[in-house]
Amino acid sequence: MNMRQNLENKTALITGGSKGIGFGIAAALVTEGMYVAITGRSKRSVQEAAEQLNKIGKGKAIGIEADVRSYDSQVAAVAAVMEKWGKLDLLVANAGVGFFAPIDQLTLAQWQETIDTNLTGVFFSLKAGLDALKESKGFFITISSLAGTNFFANGSAYNASKFGVTGFTQAAMLDLRQHGIRATTIMPGSVATYFNNHQPSEKDAWKIQIEDIGQIVVDLMQMHPRTLPSKIEVRPSNPA
Questions:
Q1: Is residue 50 part of a domain?
Q2: pTM, whole model, 2 decimals?
Q3: 5 in a domain, yes or no?
Q4: What is the pLDDT of residues 112-157, one digit of tens each?
Q5: Which residues fall within 8 angstroms of residue 169, CB to CB, at 6 or more apart?
Q6: DSSP codes of every residue in 58-88
Q7: Which of the ends of the chain has fewer CB neighbours closer than 10 A, N or C?
Q8: What's the domain count of the chain?
Q9: To the nearest whole number, what is the mean pLDDT of the chain?
Q10: Which residues fall within 8 angstroms of residue 42, CB to CB, at 6 or more apart?
Q11: Contact 103, 25 (CB under 8 A)
C-alpha cells in the first residue's frame, strides 16, 4: 500500500536558498508541486534563483531578501509566506557560512559571523516560524554537517556552530513533537556546492550532489507522519 504523502500545494520556506543545498532542496520541492519561498541576503540572487525554479516544476517559487542573523528579518520572511500562501508546512534552516583557520588566526569577526549565522540564525528562523508550524503541524529541518559530530583542525568556529545545530535540533525535536511538528537534522559530508568560495566542477562528481539532499527532504516530507528519522548522516559512497 502506498502511504507516501502528496506534497502538491504544500508550502516551504528555505533560508539560504539561492544556490547550493538550499537551491537543490527548493528544486526538488517545486518539482513535487510545492510552493517554495527562498531567502538570502542578496535580493537579486534570490529573485534570479526563483525565476529558475519557476521553470523546472509544477510548483511555484518566490525570492525574499532576508538575513538569518536578524530575528525581525525572519519574522518578516514568515509573514510574507503567510500573506502569499496562508500557511507554512515546512521550514528548512539551511543558511550557513564557513571560516576555517587555526584558533590563533581566527578573528573575532569570523567567529561572530559563524555563530550568528549558523547557530543563532537557526534559532531565529524556528522562533519566527513556530506559530505557523504549530498551526500546520508542519516540519522543521536543519542542515547541519558531519562537522556537527566530528571535529577537525582549523574548524573551531564551524565545528562549534554545527555541533550546536545538531544538539539544538535534537532538543527542539523533543519539544516540537508535543505540538505535532516533526524535526530532523540532515548532516551531509562533502557536497558539490559553492560553499566557502568553492567552484563546483567535474572533479566534484564523487561528492554528494545538491539534488541528493533535495531527494532526502522530499522523502522526509512524504514519509508517514507517525515515523520520524530525527538525525540523518549523509556521506559520499566512494570518496576521492
A1: yes
A2: 0.94
A3: no
A4: 999 999 999 999 999 999 999 999 999 999 999 999 999 999 999 9
A5: 122, 140, 142, 144, 183, 184, 185, 231
A6: SSEEEEEE--TT-HHHHHHHHHHHHHHHS--
A7: N
A8: 1
A9: 95
A10: 18, 65
A11: no
